[in-house]
Amino acid sequence: MKMYNVKLEVFEGPFDLLFHLIEKNEIDLMDIPISVILEQYMEYIKTLQEMDLNVASEFIVMAATLLEIKSKMLLPKQQFKGQQLEMEEVDPREELVTKLIEYKKYKIIAQTFKEMYKIGSRFFREEPEVKYIDKKIALNYSSEDIYKAYLKVISKNNAREDEIEIKKDEYTVENKIKELLVKLVKKPFLWFSELIKKSRAKGEIIVSFIAVLELVRLNKIVAEQKTTYGDILIKSFRRGEKNEQ
C-alpha cells in the first residue's frame, strides 16, 4: 500500500482559521461572502475528519454559526412598516465581523511582540560574577540598638516618599519614530548609539529602542548587529535593500 504525506496547517482556534481564509481570499471584512468562506471552512474540517484527527468542539460551533448566518442571508429581507418608516433587519454577519475585527487587533499586537522578541533575543545579558566572602563578622549590637536603627531607616524612607514628584515623560514612541526617520533621510545609515547619544534618562533610551523595533516590524528600516553586545546599525529599508543587492 502506497503511503502519502499530507501537510495540514494547524490553527489555534476557529477565529484563527476564519481569519486565515479571509486573508487568503483577500476578502474585505465588512463584506464577507459567507457561502465561499463556509465552503472552505467545512473543507478543512472534513480533511481533519478524514485523517481521523479530533476536531475541537469550538470549530464545530463556528461551523454551525456560519450555517446559521448563511440561512438567514438566504431568507427574503423582512420589512416592518410603521408610521411610514421602513426598518430593515440587521445584517446577520454584523456580530461575526465585530468579533473578527477585535481578533485582528489582538493578532497584530501578538505579532508585534513576537517580532520584538526575535530582535530582543539577539541581545544577551552577562550574568554578574558572584563573589563569596568566607569571613565571619561579629556584630557587637544589642537587639535594642538594631531596633533603633530600623526606626531611623523607616523615618528616612517616609520623609523621602513625601518628596517624590512624578513627572510626565516628554517623549513618546511616535515622536522617536519621527525623529529616527528624519535622521535617516539626512544620512544613509545611523548607529543606535548616535540615536541615544543625547538621551537624558533610561526611559528615553527604552522608548528609542521600542521605536526601532516598531519600524523593523513595519519594514521601514533594517537593524543589524554584527557582534554580541555590539552597536546596532540602522538603515532605511529601501537603502538597506539596495546595499544587499
TrEMBL record:
Keywords from the UniProt entry: Cell cycle, Cell division, Chromosome partition, Cytoplasm
Alphabetized PANTHER family for the sequence: SEGREGATION AND CONDENSATION PROTEIN A
Subcellular location: Cytoplasm
Function: Participates in chromosomal partition during cell division. May act via the formation of a condensin-like complex containing Smc and ScpB that pull DNA away from mid-cell into both cell halves.
Protein name per its UniProtKB record: Segregation and condensation protein A
Matching InterPro entries: ScpA, ScpA-like_C
Originating species: Thermoanaerobacter kivui (Acetogenium kivui)
One of the record's GO cellular component terms: cytoplasm
Domain of life of the native organism: Bacteria
A biological-process GO annotation: DNA replication
Assembly: Component of a cohesin-like complex composed of ScpA, ScpB and the Smc homodimer, in which ScpA and ScpB bind to the head domain of Smc. The presence of the three proteins is required for the association of the complex with DNA.
Protein family per UniProt: Belongs to the ScpA family.
Entry annotated with the keyword rRNA processing: no
